[in-house]
Design brief:
Distance between the termini: 33 Å
Number of helices: 2
Shape: globular
Helix content: under 10%
Radius of gyration: 27 Å
Amino acid sequence: QGAKVATNDGSFIRGRDRYSVAQLNMFAAEYVGRFADNKLELRAGVRAPYFKRELNQFCFSQNGSASVLCTTQPIATTLANGNVTFAGNNNNYVKPYSKTLKYDKVLPNVGVTYRLTENHSVYASYVKGFSSPRTDNLYTVTRAADGSLQNPGVQPETTDAIDIGYRYSSATVQATLALYDTKFKNRIASSFDQLLGVSIDRNIGSADIRGFDVGLVWQATPVVNYTGNISYNDSEVKKNSPLTGGAFLPIAGKRIAETAKWQSFNRVTWDMTDAISAAVQMKYVGKRFATDVNDQVAKAYTTWDADVRIKLPYLGGDRVYLQANVKNLTDKKYFGSISSTNNAIAVLNQTTGAVAQAGLNPTYALGSPRSYQFSLHVDF
């Protein structure tokens, strides 16, 4: 943190000024039972998280926005609801405030595993989940008609997740197949605000995510090992999101932003000698939508990496080694993370034809170009 920049009135320049306390207390209990000669294992539990958020905003908050005004200039007018305005500024602001928010939920979970044979087993589980809004998002406030301060932004997210799967394990092979179905209420999506320097969340309503994961670890020979997985993810938003003036954001039936339908990872490791090993790996990510409306898309991409490790036994056995990595061998140009948003193309009022919400600009982080890394590892 740099030195404060003083102003003529004895204060100092601030981009934001607030103090938060984020507290979590949780009760949890679990039962584990084994039956049928230990072939059947049952796990049942419950979690009860209690979130407490203490907010202390020392700047003026623009009504209904995450923007703040940290100033010592005099208030021009005080509105009937308690908000204030400043000379030369058409916005109205909430005065500095303190507020405490609380979230709590009882979350059950249950899982069962059955060992068919020494090598084969199946399992199923149900888990109820809960996500409270991040503290940053709670500083978006609106003055209600009764004068109270409301948080119109993100509401807590809840999930109901069901998983069923199969596992195979032997001396040389470990294989898994998992099927899942997760139902969200108040699904939270995030985007990074480059001006504010924080991630801003939004709710997109109810959504379903279902799919499968297949994984394999195979000791092909005593010196060659393969690790790989492939996953399929099918998501669907259930309802449109309301806008002002009776319009709505047409997201029903759309995929969740920044969620690839297909992904895959494959890695082969070769122990050339007792001291030298080499590996090559491939990652594939399918196309991803950058908006809730699915009107802008990032292309699929595949990247390749390689690494070599040389042990230095005379310096410390297996605990000391040199490693060289090459990231993105083919120097593939691709988009990494996406800071998604509602829509890239203007959304019209479905009744009047007028613009209900202007097009917004999702942003992208460029993937890393070809890069080289050399390191010396020492384990203590």
